[in-house]
Amino acid sequence: MDFVFWLEALPAATVGKLYGSQWACQAVLRSLPPLAKQYVARMLFVDTPIPSRIIQLWATAAAASKHLAALERLKRLQLLVSAPTSSKEQGYSLHPAFREQLQGAVTTRAGASDDNAERPDASDVPSRPQLSDYAQDQWETMLLYLVGTVDRLPPASPLLKGTRLPVDSILEGAGLMAGQKRERRITDAGFQFLLLDTYSQLWRLLREYIASGEEVSGAPLGAILNFLLQLGFRKVGSAFRVDALSAVERTIAADVAQLGLLMPFMSGGNVWVATTRLALALAAGGAGQAKRDGNEGFIVVETNYRVYAYTTSQLQTAILRLFTRCECILPNLFVGVLTRESVVGALASGLSADQIVGYLRQHAHPHVAARSPVVPEVVADQVRLWQADTQRVRHDRAVLYDDFPAKEVFVKSCQKARELGAWLWEDAKAGMGRLAVLESGHDKMREYIRSIK
Amino acid sequence: MVSAIRGVLLQCDVPTKEFIISLNEGKPTNERFIIHDLDDTRLFVQPSVVNWLEQRLKQFNEENTYQPPRREDTK
To answer: Which residue of A has its CA nearest to B64?
Structure first.
C-alpha cells in the first residue's frame, strides 16, 4: 500500500486540491506504470479533449489489457477527466491543475528546490555518512521497537521542540501492532510490513501519520503532504532553517526527524534540518526503489538452504530469525538455515512464501546479485511447496443448487453466477445440472432464479 | 423447484479428499458431515466441521512429513 494507492482512495475534491502542487504532481507521475506515464506525456500539451475512439487506437489489440489497466489507473487517480469534445463525442482530457503543473515542470522549473538563498556554514552541515547513519539509526530503532527487540522509541532530537511523535498510536493505527500498553505485540500485518521495501514502509506509516495529524492538529491534509513531498525532491543533505518554516511545518519537521527523514543540527545559533536519503524515498515512486535503496545487499542463499547474512544490524538478524533457524552468529555474520519448521512457523504468523523469497532476493549480496536466479531455484521452489502444503484445502461457504427445472435455467444461472463473481463450481452432467456459488451471492441468485422460472 | 443447500465447498487434491472421506466414514452415522461428493477434488460439507477438519489435516500432514534430524542432535 503506497502513496498512489492511497490517493486513489481519497475523495475527488481532496485529490483535485492536491494537484495544485507541483511536488504532488511530479510524485504521482513518477509512481505511474510506464504505459500510463507515456499517456500522460502524450496528452500533456493537447488542450482539447481527446475522443475515446482515438485513445482506443493507441494500443494494438495484443496490448489491450495493459492499455485498459493504464487508463483505469489514470481514471482512478482523477488524472483522466471525461469531457465532451467539440463534435459532442465522448472524450478525455488530463486533470487541468495537474496538466498545468506538469507543463510548468517540463518547460520552466527544474526539479531542485534549493532556491532559498540562506545557507548554513558548510562545516556545520552533517556529512553524507553522518546523515545516512542518523537515518538508519532512527528508522531501525523504530522497526526494532515494532519487532519487540528494544523497548524504547527512536529518540526525539532535543534541538527540535514540539510534541513527541505518537509512534505507538501510529503503529496501532496502521494495524502493525495491537494490544494494551504492556502486552503490545506485533500483528500478522506487522510481520509482512517488515519484509517490505523502505518506500512502502515509509508511506504506510506516513499515511497513518497524515490521517491522524489531520485530526489532532487540524492541519489540512494538503499542507502536510505537500511539505513531505517537497522534501522528497530535495538533494540528500540539502538544509533549511527550522524557524523559517510555518508552525505546522515545524511540527511535521520535528515528527519526521524522529523517523530519520530529517537530521537536525546547529549552525550559527540557529537550528537547521538536512534531508537524509530516507526523505528521498518519499517521492521516488514505488517501482525499482528497492534496488536503489542505498543499503547494499548482504544475504547469500546456498542451494543447501543455508542463509549467510553479512550484517551487524540487530534488525536484520531479527527479521531473518522470523523464517530461518539460527545456526550461529559471528560479529559480522548471521548463519541460518531455512527449514520446514522455521518456514511453516513464519507462514503461520502471516508471511507468504513470495514475501520470504522476495526479501532474500531483494537483499542479495552483490557477489550473488548478478547470478540468475539470485535465490537458488530449489530453495525458492521448496519454500513455495511448503506453503502449498499448508493450504491443501480451499474452503468457501457456499450454497449448492440442485433440481433445476430445465437445462436452460441451469445454464442461465451459471452465467449469472459468473457475472456476480460468485461462481465456484458447476456440473452439467448430473440431472439438470448442479451449481455451487459463494454464500454471499445467494440472495441475488435466489431472486434471479425466481425471475427466470 | 430449485433446491438450495447451505454448506461449505472444499476444493483439494485427490489424496486429501480420500483422507477426508475416510474421516467421515470413521464417524457414527448421525455425525457424518459430507453432504455431497461432487467430483474428484470437491466435497460439499457441513459448515460446522471446517475448523476441526483443518486441524486434522494439519496433524495428518505433520505425521506424513519427514523431518531430517538436526546435525547437532545426532552427534
So the answer is: A389
